[in-house]
Amino acid sequence: MEAAMHTHTWRVWRNMALLLVCAVLLTACGAFRSAPDTGPAPESARKAVKTAYTQMGKKYRSGGASPQKGFDCSGLIWWAYRVNGVKVPRITTDQAHAGQQVPLSAVRQGDILVFRTGSGPRGLHTGIYTGGNAFIHSPRQGEKVRVESLEVPYWRNKLITVRRVVY
Predict the structure, then answer these.
(1) pLDDT tens-place string over residues 146-160
(2) pTM for the model
(3) Catalytic residue among 8, 22, 73, 97
(4) Among this protein's residues, is 29 annotated catalytic?
């Protein structure tokens, strides 16, 4: 009986140790992420928004990522962050997976908003959250960089994720 009790105790401790090791490894891999920070946006995120605002009225240009050539949606985000020393993917589909996903209830200035505006991988659109339930973006051919409200049903219904790239 005593030997059986010792074996059982040893197995319990071994299993607890294995669970602890697994938890540590998963945490290191980012499987357990902390809740998103809902405090004020970091300075680099606020600066990226201000930089994007300097391009208000610039024409949309497919593949554009500079003030000289104009901007597509992902190009505006890439450029505004790059000017402020933050590396963000250039392509919309990559921006849709960049950083950490946060709930809309925790959105803050500088977060990337990703919308499903069409079908397939090219059916995504991105903008930068400016605060005040609004975002800045380069909409489409024939349009200019502008601010939109998330209260507009079209945009609210198309929003699929919010990505935080600056913590």
Answers:
(1) 999 999 999 999 999
(2) 0.78
(3) 73
(4) no
Find the domain containing 109 and state its range. 43-164
* Catalytic residue (choose from 6, 29, 97, 137): 137
Q: Of 91, 69, 68, give the one whose Cα is nearest residue 78.
A: 91
Among residues 45, 17, 21, the alpha carbon closest in space to that of 165 is found at: 45
Cα(44)–Cα(139) distance, rounded to whole angstroms? 24
22 belongs to the catalytic site: no
Q: How many helices (H) and strands (E) does the chain have?
A: 5, 8
Asked about 73 being catalytic, the answer comes back as yes
Q: Is residue 111 a contact partner of residue 164, using CB atoms and an 8 Å limit?
A: yes
The count of domains in the chain is 2
For residue 20, the model assigns a pLDDT of 42
Q: Do 116 and 123 touch, CB atoms closer than 8 A?
A: yes
Q: Looking at the structure, do residues 58 and 88 belong to the same domain, yes or no?
A: yes
| pLDDT band at residue 10 using 50, 70 and 90 as cut-offs | very low
Place of tokens 């003030």: 67
Domain membership of residue 37 (yes or no) is no
